[in-house]
Amino acid sequence: MSWYLLILAGLFEIGWAIGLEYSEGFSKPVPTLGTAVAIVASMVLLARAVEDLPIGTAYAVWTGIGAVGTASLGVVLFDEPASPLRVAFIGLIVVGITGLHAVSGG
């Protein structure tokens, strides 16, 4: 169950990171509120996950999910570059997340 909470926390991390862009420096109320809600949800879920998971593993996976998701959505939503090297390095993050899950008894 902790791994599911951690994955959900990572998804909310993607939400608040993308929300930062849409909030335009917290000048737009609705995206700002959504960003704030996503930050709180992400932190609460991460805190619940680390009750059973090692903090180092959980934090690395949480930030990895956020990094991969945010970078991927940056390409799709904000026309950020998707060069082969950038995609390869994002893939390495996915390998790291998968490896941490595998060696952590997930």
UniProtKB/TrEMBL annotation:
Pfam families linked: Multi_Drug_Res
Principal location: membrane
Residue ranges of coiled coil: none
Membrane topology of the entry: Multi-pass membrane protein
Alphabetically ordered keywords of this record: Cell membrane, Membrane, Transmembrane, Transmembrane helix, Transport
Bilayer-spanning residue ranges: 33-50, 57-78, 84-103
Subcellular location: Cell membrane
Gene Ontology biological process terms, A to Z: transmembrane transport
SUPFAM superfamilies: Multidrug resistance efflux transporter EmrE
Cellular component, GO, one term: plasma membrane
UniProt name for this protein: DMT family transporter
Taxonomic source organism: Halobellus rarus
